[in-house]
Design a protein that fits this description.
- The chain has about 350 residues and is mostly helical.
- It folds into three domains: about 20-100, no CATH class; about 105-185, Dna Ligase, domain 1 (2-Layer Sandwich); about 200-300, no CATH class.
- It is built from 14 helices and eight strands.
- The chain is elongated, with a radius of gyration of 30 Å.
Length: about 350
């Protein structure tokens, strides 16, 4: 009898120790870094050994023992690819549960700040899991572009610039699908009809809107600027938009555009060519599309930036007044040493 009691006691002790081991293993604190939290990236499917190596390298754990028991208890073999936020001092059990379920933390992705579809692909490739070439192929897929009457020059009109919340593992195809949804929502029958009334396709509206964006500092002036360019198109006058010159010549941050004869020949240069350029020179927000579709009606065909950096323009209907405004503006630029 006494022997049986001893055996039972030892069994209970063994079970208790095992449960304590499980408890302490599950509650082991991980996250051996300075900041309150840290993002880790699991690029691809990896082995358990590779996972442990990465977690040590990322200062999530100090040794394999920090996770060995809890991974066995939860039958954890390898994490799902993704971007995960690890809290400093997080419980090992919560960490493994997060990885096993693939509970990623989304990130804010800036879809803006560049001027071409190639630069956009590079920008997305830096922020998301897929590389830039994959994004470029998805955004310039001939089948996709033909669906909307677009080509490689107007492909950027399909992208709606903004800051979006995406999972790091979003595929280029999923990204394009989201952009299609935005595009189709904006280009409803009403807006298509407004474009047709102007004699423009949606792609041409986006191209003109991108020029308006480049000329606009104060958005309240955008409909007036759009009206001016529509007037020029109507009478066959060259658009002569400075932002098209900076785009064609790859001038970044130019404060004074010089129209010398040495600049390259480009179909985007609206001083050299009549009509609209082949495609947008900026990715355009809806506010600029709206400015074109609902442009202010007036007779202005000239505008000149106001001196003193007001961000507004002086508009005129004739070259004489425009030239006068231009002399005042250039004099101001000279006075503050902008060459």
């Amino acid at each position: 009898m006494k022997k049986t009691i001893i055996i039972i006691g030892l069994a209970i002790l063994a079970i208790s120790l095992a449960l304590l081991s499980v408890f302490f293993s599950a509650n082991t604190k991980i996250g051996h870094f300075r900041n309150p939290k840290k993002a880790i990236y699991i690029q691809n499917e990896i082995s358990f050994e590779q996972f442990i190596e990465q977690m040590i390298a990322d200062s999530i754990i100090e040794t394999e023992d920090d996770l060995s028991l809890v991974t066995k208890i939860k039958s954890f073999k390898s994490p799902k690819p993704g971007r995960y936020i690890v809290q400093k001092g997080m419980k090992a059990s919560d960490f493994i549960s997060m990885l096993r379920a693939g509970n990623q933390s989304p990130l804010m992705v800036k879809v803006d700040g560049v001027r071409t579809i190639y630069q956009m692909a590079g920008n997305l490739g830096k922020q998301l899991r897929a590389d830039s070439l994959a994004f470029l192929k998805a955004m310039t897929n001939p089948e996709l572009l033909s669906k909307y009457g677009l080509n490689e020059f107007t492909a950027s009109s399909l992208i709606s610039p903004n800051t979006y919340e995406f999972f790091w593992t979003i595929t280029p195809e999923e990204f394009v699908a989201k952009m299609e949804d935005k595009y189709n929502t904006y280009w409803n029958e009403e807006n298509k009809a407004a474009a047709a009334k102007l004699g423009l396709t949606p792609a041409e509206v986006a191209t003109l809107a991108s020029i308006v964006k480049g000329e606009t500092v104060n958005s309240s002036e955008a409909p007036k600027i759009a009206g001016l360019y529509l007037n020029r198109l109507k009478i066959g006058m060259k658009l002569q938009a400075d932002p098209t010159v900076t785009f064609a010549s790859n001038m970044k941050g130019a404060k004074r555009v010089k129209l010398d004869g040495d600049r390259i020949k480009s179909p985007y240069d609206t001083y050299q060519n009549a009509g609209l350029p082949p495609g947008p020179i900026f990715f355009t927000e809806e506010i600029y599309l709206d400015a074109v579709l609902h442009a202010e009606k007036h007779n202005y065909i000239y505008m000149c930036a106001q001196p003193r950096g007001t961000g507004f323009h002086d508009f005129t209907t004739n070259l004489n007044d425009h030239s006068a405004y231009g002399r005042v503006y250039r004099k101001w630029l000279d006075s503050i040493n902008i060459n």
